[in-house]
Design brief:
alpha/beta, Spore Coat Polysaccharide Biosynthesis Protein SpsA, Chain A, seven-stranded mixed β-sheet, three-stranded antiparallel β-sheet, 10 strands, 33% helix, 15% strand
């Protein structure tokens, strides 16, 4: 019997539906990178998870290279300033949370709405002007050239020049070292807010189950690694200044322990000691039973 894999996030009618057999789910998880196809003229959508970004949103948007993205979406997480008004003045699509959902909750809305547009590549760019928007073409290139499914914009080559606080550099390098050991990769940073995703990765990743807090950033990376996605990184200039969003020492400490807890969960799942829903692909959630050609239709 055949089953048609269903994904709640397969939102574009132009995307082909995959047919799988029940015993094939694990293979799809681990061989994810082999199921993608090279892109031609992909639709690129930039998402901006915004919170009190009225002072920096316009400058961030103005520096996005012309013709590098087809659409820009702003999701405002119940800001107390004029973020929504600035975004509307710029002619951007704006979605407003009726109450604060948190950084992770903001990203969930961003990805869902970006997928609805039919985006082939989704670029996350913080609207606080910390990251250099002019690097978007470099960020998406590995996906366009079919070398990666997720690309991270690493700040570490510019950490000192960009003004990253010492304790953040120290924690970032330690956590990145831990993640490299667990994930079997050699990246210089995982904790960046400048990323590009292949559509099919977002469609098969159950990111809606993730935290609404800052740890969401690492949960979706862990899911990408679990499903066998290909990760690359590029170096990105950045800047720290008063208007750039950042979290204080206390929340940074809580975030760090959250990352270590996530890595422990990843290892326990890998050893088969626990089974977490966050590491089950969306198409595993349910399946439509394909009708046999010999099956008679309903009686008239």
């Amino acid at each position: 019997m055949e089953y048609v894999a269903c994904s709640p996030l397969n939102l574009s009618t132009s995307q082909p539906t995959r047919t799988i057999t029940i015993g094939n789910v694990r293979r799809l998880e681990k061989d994810y990178g082999k199921t993608v196809e090279k892109m031609t003229n992909p639709k690129i959508v930039a998402i901006m998870p915004a919170y009190n970004a009225s002072k920096t949103l316009e400058q961030t948007f103005r520096e996005i290279p012309p013709d590098s993205v087809h659409e820009c979406i702003v999701v405002d997480d119940f800001s107390a300033d004029s973020t929504v008004e600035v975004a509307r003045k710029l002619g951007l699509r704006v979605f407003l949370h009726r109450e604060n959902q948190g950084y992770g909750g903001n990203q969930k809305t961003c990805y869902v709405e970006a997928l609805k547009t039919g985006a082939d590549i989704v670029v996350m760019l913080h609207p606080d002007y910390q990251y250099d928007p002019k690097k978007i073409p470099d960020l998406v290139r590995p996906i366009v050239e079919d070398r990666a499914d997720l690309v991270l914009g690493s700040r570490m080559a510019y950490a000192i020049v960009g003004g990253m606080p010492f304790y953040k550099r120290l924690c970032n390098r330690f956590l990145t070292w831990c993640e490299n050991k667990v994930f079997g990769l050699q990246l210089s940073e995982y904790h960046t807010g400048f990323r590009a995703f292949r559509r099919s990765l977002l469609e098969s990743t159950p990111f809606l189950l993730n935290s609404n807090d800052f740890i969401f950033d690492q949960e979706i990376v862990a899911q990408a690694v679990w499903f066998g996605a290909r990760l690359e990184e590029i170096s990105v200039p950045h800047r720290y200044f008063p208007e750039a969003s950042t979290i204080g020492f206390g929340r940074s400490l809580r975030y760090g322990f959250g990352v270590l807890g996530l890595l422990a969960t990843f290892l326990l799942n890998r050893k088969g000691l626990v089974t977490s829903r966050m590491f089950r692909p969306l198409h595993h959630a349910y399946a439509e039973v394909a009708e046999s050609p010999s099956t008679p239709g309903p009686a008239s």
